[in-house]
Amino acid sequence: MPNLPDEQIQNFSHETVLLNETVASVLGVKSLNDLTAKKSGIFVDATFGRGGHSRLLLEYLADDSVLIVFDKDPQAIEVAENLAKTDSRVKVIHDSFANIIKCLSDLTIDKVDGIMADLGVSSPQLDDGNRGFSFMRDGVVDMRMDTSRGPSVGEWLKAVDEATLAKVLYEYGEERHSRRIAKAIKAMDSYHSTLELAEVIKTAHPNWQKGKHPATQSFQAMRIFINNELSDVENFLNDCIKILNTGGPLAVISFHSLEDRIIKQFFNHHSRGRYDGDDKLPIPPNRPKYFNKPERIAPSDEEIKANPRARSAYLRVATRSTVAVEN
């Protein structure tokens, strides 16, 4: 897809979720009102999006600080590069946060003082029919975060076999009727229209939750799979252990149970000094505690009322402990 002018990109509005809470967390305070001076250090926004979190964070960073922003989406990178032109503290990386260690190494950076990430799909991606993330308006069946590389969902659907498709729908969408839906999808003549794909899924779906479109879980599954989202999150979280300075916060927002489960388990494992199942062993291993006790923050009722897309969001935060990384 051709690049859009920055003013056209901005037309797709995005309401940043848990804005103040996330920025306060990555700065290591309960509230932004608790800050008595601007912070110095190196910080990372692992999912720049349209820059809501980054812009607010920059207001509280000292002039000698650095903010490194990542994004897969070329349109988000355009916005980030425009921000970098007006603020020399901003460094832009067009890549997945799963490659954070290599990308930071290329900048001769091996440690940072705080990391934040806002997972999932942004409002501009959902609202732009050309991206194919949503069935609320017609568009090409694409769903790639990074439109500059890799196959689209439509291209993948042409090649994938029915059994593999059913497995993807079940594992990444928790879709109970995955086999029936996969069969209907593979019977389609083409995969050029998100509305046509959604209608086929709806027809094949024998039952769905009231108030929820029957294609919701299937679209989620295909998007997660094509973007390698869950494994990217796992790699990113593990790399954060290695690059965070002692006392450095890691603040991550998730929007669905699969992501949130990974983040919750990660923090639990690395803050308790044990993994699930360790207590069943005759002699439980003494594992390092890489993080202090995590905190979960939900959006307020006021935020959910103003921005319904925030209703499924959770922010999980923990700070890097003094334990060194074992080789």
Description:
The protein has helices at 6-11, 19-26, 52-59, 74-86, 100-106, 123-127, 153-159, 162-173, 178-186, 194-204, 216-226, 229-243, 257-272, 301-306; strands spanning 42-45, 66-71, 90-94, 114-118, 249-254, 295-297, 314-319. The longest helix is centred in the last third of the chain and has 16 residues, at 257-272. The N and C termini lie far apart (43 Å). The chain has a seven-stranded mixed beta sheet, with helices on both faces. Residues 1-13 have low confidence and may be disordered. The chain is α/β, with parallel strands linked by helices. Helix 4 links the parallel strand 2 (66-71) and strand 3 (90-94). The chain is 41% helix and 11% strand. The radius of gyration is 21 Å and the shape is globular. It is built from 14 helices and seven strands.
Q: Can you tell me the overall shape?
A: globular
| Weakly predicted, low-confidence segments | 1-13
Structural class: alpha/beta
Beta-strand segment tally = 7
Order of helices and strands: HHEHEHEHEHHHHHHHEHEHE
How far apart the termini lie comes to 43 Å
The spatial strand order of the largest sheet comes to: 3-2-1-4-5-7-6
Q: Determine the strand fraction and express it as a percent band.
A: 5-15%
Helical content stands at 40-55%
Largest sheet: 7 strands, mixed
What do the pLDDT scores average to?
90
C-alpha Rg, in Å? 21 Å
DSSP helical segment count: 14
